[in-house]
Amino acid sequence: MPPESSADLVNPQKARTGLSRVWHAGLYSLAGLRAGWREPAFRQEAILAIVLIPLSFWLGRTWVEVAMLSGSLLLVMIVELLNTGIETVVDRIGPEWHALSKRAKDMGSAAVLLSLLLAGGVWLAALYTHFAPP
Q1: Residues 57, 71: contact at Cβ < 8 Å?
Q2: pLDDT averaged over consecutive 10-residue blocks of the chain (134 residues)?
Q3: Minimal CA–CA distance to 74: which of 93, 51, 49?
Q4: Measured between alpha carbons, how far is 71 from 26 in angstroms, rounded to an integer?
Q5: H or E stretch including 16?
Q6: Catalytic residue among 39, 65, 80, 87
Q7: Between 63-93 and 18-37, two packed helices, what is the crossing angle to 10 degrees?
Q8: How far is CA 120 from CA 14, 18, 23, 69, 78, in A?
C-alpha cells in the first residue's frame, strides 16, 4: 500500500472513493446549507423560495415557465451561498481593510444583486402575462 500523501492526511475526503465519497460530500453539503441558514439574507431568500416555488406551479403555464420561475429563485440562493463563502474566506484572511478584500466582497454582492434582478424580472414577466388582459 503506498504511503499517504500530506494532502490525504489534511483532507480525508480526498482518500474516499465510491459511495463513501458521495455520502460524505452530501453531509458536507447539508452542513453548508445549515451554515447558510444562519445567514439572515439566505434565510430570507429561502423562506421566500418556500412560498414562491409552489406558486410557480400555479403561475407557470408550461414546464419551461415553472422551471424559469423556480430556477430563478434557486439561482438567487446559490449565488447568496457563494457570496457568503467569499465573504467568509476574506474575513478568515484578516479583519483589516484591504482594497482587494473590498473588491471581492463588492463583486459577490453585485452577483447577488444581478441574480435578484433576474428573478424579479422573470416573476414580473410571468405575472404580467398571466394577469394582463388579452
Answers
A1: no
A2: 56 82 92 96 97 97 97 98 97 93 97 98 96 85
A3: 49
A4: 21
A5: none
A6: 80
A7: 80
A8: 40, 40, 35, 9, 16
Rounded-to-integer distance, Cα 87 and Cα 76, Å: 16
DSSP, res 3:
P
What is the pTM for the complete model shown? 0.85
First-to-last CA distance in the chain? Answer: 72
80 catalytically annotated: yes
SS3 state at 120: helix
Residue with cell 414562491: 52
Q: Residues 69, 52: contact at Cβ < 8 Å?
A: yes
